[in-house]
Amino acid sequence: MIKLWTIALVVTFVSPSFGNHHQLNPVHPSSEPSKAFRETRSIFSSEYYCWTQWFDRDDPSGTGDWETLSDLLKQYPNEICPNPVDVEATTLSGTPAKQTGEVFYKYDKTSGFVCRNEDQKQGMCSDYRVRFSCPSAYCSEKVCWTEWFDRDNPSGTGDWELLSNLTTENPGKICETPQYIQAKAKSLLASFIGDNIYIYNPTQGFVCRNEDQTFKKCWDYEVRFGCC
């Protein structure tokens, strides 16, 4: 599914140290990648994403429950990536945060999660825990992958490769609770392309929205899931 765009795209990737960003030569989406690019891509072809463990560093006894990424990185320096692609919060009993009816001050992959007591009608937040979707350096190395799936294209609002839709359309081909996810556009891994990704985690799947992109168009993606 080749995009016949007239613009060039600078393809970027992050080194395994997560500290240095590198740029390759601009790649036109309708052209074949150069030999140098194909060789570089093959080196990093193992990149995929998984959920970290759950973290609960605070409780709401003070001003609220502050599970910020900056604080968690200081407390767990080797267990969370500095630039997660997604975040999830639940109460300690497992209720998803968005189902509690409480108001959240922060809830995003950059900030982490904050529930302030002053924002709640009842005057007190629940006690929450968080986890982040991180690259392969934070995952187990043994992964059993499904086949690649491509159920949508970005001609509408974007490319929606949700796990719920994929399991319905492909019964018996995806495990009930995947632990890992990988996405690619044509032969390029999603992390190389530079699109702003809306959802990228094993329990929800993958979503790229056109409205979030500089040029208002996502690439066409396919996904696979790791089940062990």
From TrEMBL:
InterPro entries attached to this UniProt entry: CILP1/CILP2 (IPR039675), WxxW_domain (IPR025155)
Species, as recorded: Oryzias latipes
Organism lineage string: Eukaryota, Metazoa, Chordata, Craniata, Vertebrata
Keywords attached to this entry: Glycoprotein, Secreted, Signal
Record gene name: LOC101165284
PANTHER family: CARTILAGE INTERMEDIATE LAYER PROTEIN 1, CARTILAGE INTERMEDIATE LAYER PROTEIN CLIP
Name of the featured protein: WxxW domain-containing protein
Entry's Gene Ontology cellular component terms: extracellular region
Annotated WxxW domain residues: 51-134, 145-227
Subcellular location: Secreted
Signal peptide location: 1-19
